[in-house]
Amino acid sequence: MEGFRFSKFIPKKASEEANFENLLELFFKLLPYTSGNVSETLEWMSELDNQYNITSADYGMADFIDDLKKNGYISDDSQEGELSLTAKSEQSIRKSALEEIFGKLKKSKAGKHQVSKTGIGDDLNSNIRQFQFGDALDSIDMTRSIYNAQMNNGIDEFKMTEDDLVIRERDHKTQASTVLMIDISHSMILYGEDRITPAKKVAMALAELITQRYPNDTLDIIVFGNDAWPITIKDLPYLKVGPYHTNTYAGLQLATDILRRKKTSNKQIFMITDGKPTCLKVGLKYYKNSFGLDRKVINKTMNMAAQCKRLGIPITTFMIAKDPYLQQFVKEFTKVNNGRAYYSSLNGLGEYIFEDFLNNRKKTVR
Question: Looking at the whole model, is its pTM more than 0.70?
Answer without folding.
Answer: yes
